[in-house]
Amino acid sequence: MAANVEMSIGIGGFGAIGMAVARALDGRNIPGMRLAAVSANDKLAATARMKDYASPVPVMGLAELADTSDIVIECAPSAVFREVAEAAIEKGLIFMPLSCGQLLDHMDLVTRAEETGARIVVPTGALLGLDAVRGAAEGEIESVTMVTRKPPSGLAGAPHLVENDIDVSDLSEPLMVFDGSARGAVKGFPANVNVAVALSLAGIGPDWTTIQVWADPGVTRNTHTIKVEADSVRFEMTIENVPSLENPRTGALTPLSTIAALRGLVQPLKVGS
Length: 273
What we know:
Largest sheet: 5 strands, parallel
CATH topology of the largest domain: Rossmann fold
Helix content: 25-40%
Strand order of the largest sheet: 2-1-3-4-5
């Protein structure tokens, strides 16, 4: 990319994550990138929040972001994932999904991206070690397991809990609420365990990556422990993420990881695979 050419960024979803990324772009904290537009369900509220930005941008529909942007970031409710993804991929843009669990139900978009020249770039998010998992996947991985522990409030309302009549509102000790594949986990906890899908896509796939989800009143941080057994390496990692003040279902690291992923697309030195 020429030094004097900026990449324009559209953000689909203007909640806790979208606003944090938009602030970084509005503050010109990522050289070579500028905020072009955002999308939100409540356009009037989003426009009001935009008033104190240095350079306010239009609030538009999800599919319209692809008309104004080089990169489209998705951080919207899972129900509208395809609307924002398909428009970006059809135009051959860089598409950055944070609800990456939705890719499992829309893998045709990956095939379509090959045809249009689009790129789907999944940020690390609230996880760690994806570089190591990707490296191990170049050899043979025997198993990838993950244990997620979250404060009960961060899991409240998840479809799996509702469908199975699991009450986590008044726990006095940890309760395992799910044990199964990453594919099953993201269906039951679409707002909580996108990290498991990112891990599975970096490694051995969503049907062979296993995850336990615990509602734990003894933790104040979203905690993920990953174990990998491979022919080249064996490792175990734990990360404790501070929940976002605006949305306890996601970690404060997630928007920072997205900003880092954007920076990695334009900076002259990129560390990590």
